[in-house]
């Protein structure tokens, strides 16, 4: 593991993949102390999610801002400089060398931790071929993990299925965050490379991003508690 995680709840990041901040507030209120870490992506960020991030942080929660930045280096640098002022814990950028170098420059000496996205969990080898890549998913993930380590980012976002490959490349000191986690019996949805929480933790993941199995559950708090029990048993 990249570092000691003092609060076991921080290993579970709840994806607030909902359309409005009011939907998000309801989820946070429902989960209460069962969750301490939340992910805000495009959909919510563009609907007031940045103000929500500030509010959650003021309440002692942690926030993963999943914006997957990718642009010319200078533009990324300037964008990341702005994000450092929000107080979020994690920010994603795409794992292109110039993008990552720009992000590291923008982060400076702040506490913001940068995560590089290797290959989206909805992609398989066929999707990469369609996009013009000549590599299989596992080969692309390995290459981008190597580039991320050299660039000096703080961690990697990858499918749990590639966690062991990534850990072998980046060593013990970088964070691995895995989306696309599906508890046993859950539908995979649009994710093509998934593992259960137990499988992901045992493969070496530090944090698990879990959205639909919690926020769409009949009882989100009970679903989160069950997942935390599984994480605790695997840790």
UniProtKB/TrEMBL annotation:
Keywords: Decarboxylase, Lyase, Pyrimidine biosynthesis. The active site is at residue 68. Pathway: Pyrimidine metabolism; UMP biosynthesis via de novo pathway; UMP from orotate: step 2/2. It catalyses: orotidine 5'-phosphate + H(+) = UMP + CO2. InterPro entries: Aldolase_TIM, OMPdecase, OMPdecase_AS, OMPdecase_bac, OMPdeCOase_dom, RibuloseP-bd_barrel. Residues 11-227 form the Orotidine 5'-phosphate decarboxylase domain. It holds the Pfam family OMPdecase. Belongs to the OMP decarboxylase family. Type 1 subfamily. Catalyzes the decarboxylation of orotidine 5'-monophosphate (OMP) to uridine 5'-monophosphate (UMP). Substrate binds at residues 17, 39, 66-75, 121, 182, 191, 212. Its EC number is 4.1.1.23. HAMAP family: OMPdecase_type1_B (MF_01200_B). This is Orotidine 5'-phosphate decarboxylase. One of its GO terms (molecular function) is orotidine-5'-phosphate decarboxylase activity. Homodimer. It comes from the Bacteria.
């Amino acid at each position: 593991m990249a570092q000691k995680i003092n609060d076991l709840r921080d290993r579970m990041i709840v994806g607030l993949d909902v359309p409005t901040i009011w939907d998000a507030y309801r989820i946070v209120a429902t989960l209460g102390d069962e969750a301490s870490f939340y992910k805000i992506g495009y959909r919510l960020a563009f609907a007031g999610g940045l103000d929500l991030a500030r509010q959650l942080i003021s309440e002692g929660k942690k926030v993963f801002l999943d914006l997957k930045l990718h642009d010319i280096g200078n533009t990324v640098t300037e964008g990341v400089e702005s994000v450092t002022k929000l107080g979020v814990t994690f920010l994603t950028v795409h794992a292109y060398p110039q993008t990552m170098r720009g992000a590291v420059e923008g982060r400076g000496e702040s506490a913001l931790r940068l995560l590089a996205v290797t290959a989206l969990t909805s992609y398989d080898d066929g999707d990469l071929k369609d996009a013009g890549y000549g590599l299989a998913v596992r080969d692309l993930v390995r290459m981008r993990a190597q580039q991320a380590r050299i660039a000096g980012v703080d961690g990697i976002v990858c499918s749990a299925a590639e966690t062991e490959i990534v850990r072998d490349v980046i060593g013990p000191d970088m964070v691995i965050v895995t989306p696309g986690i599906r508890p046993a019996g859950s539908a995979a949805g649009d994710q093509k490379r998934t593992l259960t929480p137990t499988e992901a933790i045992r493969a070496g993941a530090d944090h698990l991003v879990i959205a639909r199995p919690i926020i769409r559950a009949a009882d989100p708090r009970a679903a989160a508690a069950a997942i935390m029990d599984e994480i605790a048993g695997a840790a």
